[in-house]
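**Protein of interest**
===
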Amino acid sequence: MTRPSLARLALGLASAALAMGAAPAFAQDDDGELLPANEKVNQLIIYGDDACPPSVGDEITVCARKDEGERYRIPDILRQSGSPQNEAWNERVLAYETVGNFGTMSCSPSGYGGWTGCTQQLVDAAYKERASSSDIRFSELIQQEREKRLSTIDSEAAAEQGRVEEIEREYEARLQQEREASLPGEDTQLPTPAPEGE
């Protein structure tokens, strides 16, 4: 480098240093906005109708309002976790069941006959879906209605049977009366026939 270019570089660096010294110091907040370094920011989360405390002195108070129902809940950030410790025991067992599942009737690309078993998996999935669908609720409702109707049919049938048996008893009693009653004209005495030979 030549001497005049070094001088220009030194002069540029000096002027930049002076400009930086004259500017106030800035800090960056969580959102990436520049704040003066000596300012204090108080960020608070308030719930329901709680009042936001006023700023004091050179402190800036910023309040984020949330619903009253969130006051004693775990913060949103901590509610969901992809940690293996938070995985349900049932899911871990199901994952172990598929280990080494290859070969015939496995519906997998590995092992001899691995392509078989896919239809059975589809059928099993369809039965699971059917068992958990809303249609099963309809079938339960239909069954309950059917049982309710059958219970009324049984009571109606029992009442009808009682009426039929009463009619049969009355009919039998009438028949018995008619059998025991004398025929018309039986009350008169018939003349006894004279003995033959007289």
